[in-house]
Amino acid sequence: METDTQTEIRSAMDIVTARQRGRALALELGFNGADVTLIAAAISEVARNIVDHAKKGEISMSSVNSSISGGRRGIQIIARDEGPGIRDVAQAMQYGYSTRKGLGVGLPGAKWLMDEFEIASEIGRGTTVTMKKWKR
Length: 136
Description:
The chain is an alpha+beta fold. It has a single domain (about 5-135), classed as Histidine kinase-like ATPase, C-terminal domain (Heat Shock Protein 90, 2-Layer Sandwich), CATH 3.30.565.10. The chain contains four helices and five strands, in the order βααββααββ. A five-stranded antiparallel beta sheet has the order 1-2-3-5-4, with helices on one face.
């Protein structure tokens, strides 16, 4: 089963849609209830960043297999935008740092919820966040 879904992110409604699609895919892949909730929360965080900072972007989700450690199965979420980019990624990844009077848990929170987390950002070109969660 090669499952892949893409959701355009432009509004709060799209965040809800992406979250629902992520939950559905995680359940289809056999994740337990607690992990399904963590995956949905991480999707919410990165989607909210797209809406707040880039205005539009997309989130794609797919099943992945790990070539190491016995071929684990998991879910991969890629959030992409062509927004202003993040000037200081290290600073943005600190708990409590917020550019908009928020709690400052968005990106670090998403990283904490997932097993793997990478962020690539270029000023004036946008940001890509790649996250993976492996089935236990």
